[in-house]
Write a structure and sequence with these properties.
Elements: E1 7-8, E2 34-35, E3 42-43, E4 58-59, E5 64-72, E6 76-83, E7 88-95, H1 108-119, E8 133-141, E9 144-151, H2 158-164, H3 172-192, E10 195-196, E11 205-207, H4 212-217, E12 220-221, E13 227-228, E14 242-244, E15 251-252, H5 269-272, H6 280-295, E16 297-298, H7 309-324, H8 329-332, H9 338-343, H10 360-366, H11 379-392, H12 403-406
Antiparallel strand pairs: 1-16, 2-3, 4-5, 5-6, 6-7, 7-9, 8-9, 10-15, 11-14, 12-13
């Protein structure tokens, strides 16, 4: 059994030498949403709230020409556009009309404006590892106004590339580079911009294009306008550059958008418990991703009877507390759901050992080796990786280390 019953994450079987660019890399092709073959506007998903786009449309006083469709999410569509003034290509993100029309609150435009403003005079290396908005404007549609943002063109997300090339673990060399860059991104976002991302996932970490003009020139575009750009493969590049992307539900340190943040399986325990939270939620979120990228395992999946969400949440918290320690009284006393989880048998202060518990070092050593070939990581590397994980995944947010301090950790030294 893996570390606290960790569940194996299986990736897709399709192989490819390139990946599809997407600013929002979570397109749906199921009953949750399909695309019109001419306009690529989401159907069956309140389509009237999305702005209808045609390939060849020209926006913002003739400056941007739509060349193809890059991706769509629950709240926006993303398009490849050519800037006729600069003769360069960018990504255009068009929000649906629910936002900035008084129906749903969103800080994305304000967050991206803050990042752009601070980046213009900052020497922080993290500014090069966050998505950068280079322009914005509005479009008017039948259901209201649509905020539009122009971003630098990025390559595929880590999630997309891992699926396409059957990558269950990230290459070790590339992983160290990626983690350092993401910690720099978080330190910049928090320390200089006062921003918390709140939604770090493999789909929101995008690989930079080595040569954007060449990637666009060699792009494949199908008859419906779907664009596929060649993205550097993590396993082949000696130097990898990534950017933290999609600040769609990001917030400011002094103004939170919602308490429903982070992917559930990567969510900090104080958020699940309904306790107050701060920028340390991003550190936990990234630490959970490090464990996943390092071992190829989906951490803290949680198991519930008959797939009951509450039971799975309780089991997940039990796994966390058995691995990384229980919560202090100050968190429990201020957690809206503490009593609920206690009644479900969650040992909030870790007075018992969770069944199936395996030491972190043993788990990492076992899942970083390939049966019959590689012996796995050297013992000193396992020790350093686990020490970093414990600092990032500390269940007590007060002792969870900030990004700036984590950047000096020995595991990142040779990345």
């Amino acid at each position: 059994m893996g570390l606290l019953s960790f569940a194996r994450e299986r990736v897709g079987s399709k192989k490819a030498t390139s990946s599809t660019t997407s600013l929002i890399d979570n397109r749906k092709r199921s009953s949750n949403g399909s695309f019109d073959s001419n306009t690529r506007t989401p159907k069956k998903r309140q389509a009237d709230k999305f702005y209808t786009v045609q390939i060849g449309d020209v926006y913002h006083r003739g400056r941007y020409i739509v060349r193809g469709h890059l991706g769509s999410g629950r709240y926006a569509t993303v398009w490849l556009v050519k800037d006729t003034r600069l003769n360069e290509h960018f990504a255009l993100k068009i929000l649906n009309s629910d936002f900035y029309n008084g129906k749903h609150e969103l800080f994305e435009l304000e967050v991206m404006q803050r990042i752009s403003q601070v980046s213009s005079s900052s020497a922080h290396p993290g500014k090069d590892h966050v998505a950068q908005m280079v322009d914005h404007f509005e479009l008017s549609g039948p259901s209201g106004r649509h905020v539009c943002m122009i971003f630098d063109l990025l390559g595929a997300s880590i999630a997309k590339q891992a699926t396409q090339v059957q990558m269950q673990r990230l290459p070790y060399r590339a992983l160290k580079q990626i983690m350092r860059q993401l910690l720099e991104a978080l330190d910049f976002a928090y320390a200089e911009c006062g921003i918390i991302h709140t939604d770090i996932s493999p789909s929101n970490i995008c690989i930079e294009l080595a040569e954007a003009p060449a990637a666009v020139a060699a792009a494949k575009v199908d008859s419906a306008g779907e664009v596929e750009l060649k993205t550097p493969l993590l396993s082949e590049e000696p130097k990898v550059n990534v950017r933290l992307n999609d600040f769609g539900i990001a917030c400011f340190t002094d103004r939170h958008l919602t308490d429903e943040i982070s992917p559930p399986l990567l969510r900090a325990p104080e958020v699940t418990l309904g306790a107050p939270w701060d920028s340390k939620v991003d550190i936990f979120n990234l630490g959970a991703l490090l464990l996943q990228f390092l071992t190829g395992q989906l951490p803290f999946a949680g198991r519930g009877e008959n797939n009951a969400a509450g039971c799975a949440e309780s089991d997940r918290l039990s796994q966390l507390f058995a691995s990384f320690g229980g919560e202090p009284d100050i968190v429990i006393d201020n957690a809206d759901r503490a009593e609920e989880f206690a009644k479900n048998g969650v040992d909030l202060q870790r007075k018992r050992t969770h069944s199936g518990y395996t030491a972190l070092e043993q788990f990492v050593a076992e899942h970083t080796s390939d049966p019959g070939s590689s012996p796995g990581l050297p013992a000193d590397e396992v020790y350093k990786a686990c020490d970093l994980l414990r600092r990032m995944l500390a269940t007590d947010p007060r002792i969870r280390e900030p990004a700036g301090r984590l950047l000096s950790h020995p595991w990142l030294a040779n990345g």
